[in-house]
Amino acid sequence: MAAKVGDKRIGNKFWELRSKHGRDKLFATPELMWEAACEYFEWIEANPLIEIDYKGKDANRVEMPHIRPFTIHGLCLYLGVNVQYFTDFEQAIKGKDDPISKEFSLVVTRIRETIYDQKFSGAACGFYNASIISQDLGLINKSELNATIQKIGKDLAEETYE
Question: Is the pTM of this model over 0.85?
Fold first, then answer.
C-alpha cells in the first residue's frame, strides 16, 4: 500500500486527527458522541502500528502490522479533549434521571465496554502483552493476591501475640 504525500495516517500521529464534529458539538447528543467514538475505533483498525524487521539472508525489509489497542487516552486525544474532561462528563451524568443523561450514560458505558472488550480479547489472543493489559483492566494476579493475604495473615498473627 503506497502512502500519498500528506497522508495523515502515516506513522503514529493519530493525535493530529480530530473528530469531524468539533469540540463545541462533540457531546451535543448521545448519537454524536457514539459516532465520534466509532470514528476513533475505525481509525484504530484502519491504522495498525507497523513493525519493521529484516528477514532472510539478504535482510529483506518486512513490514508487519500490529493492531493498536483501544484506549480512553487515545479516544480523548482523537476527540480533542483530555481524560479529565471525559471523566468529569461521565461523573456529571451519573445518577441523573432525565432521558438525555440516561442516554449519555448508556453511550459512555458502551464506549468503556467496547474498549475493555477489545483489550481483553486482544490480550487473550496474544495480540497484546497480557500482563500490561490485565493491569490496565484492573485484573488481579493470583500470586499478588496470595502474597497480600499471606502478609495480612502474618500481620494479624503478630498482633495476636503482642
Answer: no
